[in-house]
Amino acid sequence: MHVLITGGTGLIGRALTSALLADGHQVTIISRSAQRPAGIPEPVGILSWEQAREQGWDATLRGVDAVVNLAGENLAGAGLLPERWTPQKKERILRSRVEVGERLTQAIASSSHKPSVFVQASASGYYGPRGDEEITEEHAPGNDFLAGVAKAWEASTAGVESQGVRRVIIRTGVVLSTRGGALPRLALTVRLGLGGRIGSGRQWMPWIHIEDEVRAIQFLIAQPQAQGPYNLCAPQPLRNAELMRALGKVLRRPIWLPIPAFAMKLLLGEMSTVLLDGQRMVPSRLLEAGFVFQHPEIHAALRDLFSRGM
Q1: Dist. CA 291–CA 295, nearest whole Å
Q2: pLDDT in tens, 120-159
Q3: E strands in the chain
């Protein structure tokens, strides 16, 4: 199988690429630059958007069985501290997702070679803050900024369905990995003795081990009947305080210093909603489809991540 990935140099994209290569598949990444990013192995094809346009989408999509669209600017930025959402940052968050989705939709429409499946990234933020309500794929979208971004992101590739392409939408929770995302930041605060619940600690945090995230994507690609939205999160949801206690136990550090909600709002502004609000999201459709999680419990998942450096 030949898989074309956008956003292939991000946390999920790198892990997915490694798993596909290990299973003997061919991978091509489309990125802003044709230069090979550090850590991307030689068997992976690298194309810039300009190169793809120059050689024509017929040539670019010839032989491609699946497209996985993960492209989008990091919500929290690349630094140790999360980045505030200035108007410019919010515009980049939205534009980086919608523009790539629209480009891919136009590319598929203009090509005589159609992939059989298109995997569109989205996020748990699609549902907005929902308190203690259990959230399945049947729930309506929220009304805040992140919900608006997720709706626009999903809508940007809806047109591939009219081209006869099966489309799967993955609404992903917090992906846990020692190689990026939220976990290294949280682990550092715990190791420094500064770890504790954020705000009330009662906000739900839909989470998923990076290995299960990648396995779920591969599973949905391989299931010809899979289409529409799927919540990608562990089947055992937990609150922020429970996650921090589990992290402290695994790292053998005390969890004692809560971070007040007002401090997070002062430091991060609107971006604090990512940490202070949440969704009690459950992977209903994924479980119904027969997917089996390898890491459904947080303590075992964290021990595995830190022991294997995943």
Answers
A1: 12
A2: 999 999 999 988 999 999 999 999 999 999 999 999 999 9
A3: 2-6, 26-31, 45-48, 66-69, 117-123, 134-135, 166-172, 174-176, 204-205, 207-209, 228-232, 238-239, 280-281
Amino acid at residue number 65: D
Q: In whole angstroms, what is the distance from residue 173 CA to residue 101 CA? A: 20
Whether residue 127 contacts residue 278, with contact meaning beta carbons closer than 8 Å, is answered with no
Domains of the chain in start order, with CATH, are 2-176+209-233+279-294 (3.40.50.720)
Place of tokens 């992977």: 283
> Using 50, 70 and 90 to split pLDDT, how confident is the model at 78?
low
290 burial (CB, 10 Å; 0-12 / 13-18 / 19+) is exposed
Kindly list the distances between the CA atom of residue 258 and the CA atoms of 111, 189, 232, in Å, as whole numbers in the listed order.
54, 11, 28
Burial of residue 144 (number of CB atoms within 10 Å: 0-12, 13-18, 19+)? middle
Average pLDDT over residues 95-114: 95
The one-letter amino acid at 167: R
114's tokens: 């159609």
Q: What is the C-alpha to C-alpha distance for residues 227 and 29, in angstroms, rounded to an integer?
A: 23
Cα–chain-centroid distance for residue 128? 16
- Residue 3: per-residue pLDDT: 98
pLDDT digit string, tens, across residues 39-71: 888 899 999 999 988 899 999 999 999 999 999
Residue 30: which of 59, 63, 68, 80 has the closest Cα? 68
Do residues 169 and 229 touch, judged by C-beta distance below 8 A? yes
**Distance between alpha carbon 280 and the CA centroid of its chain, in Å?**
17
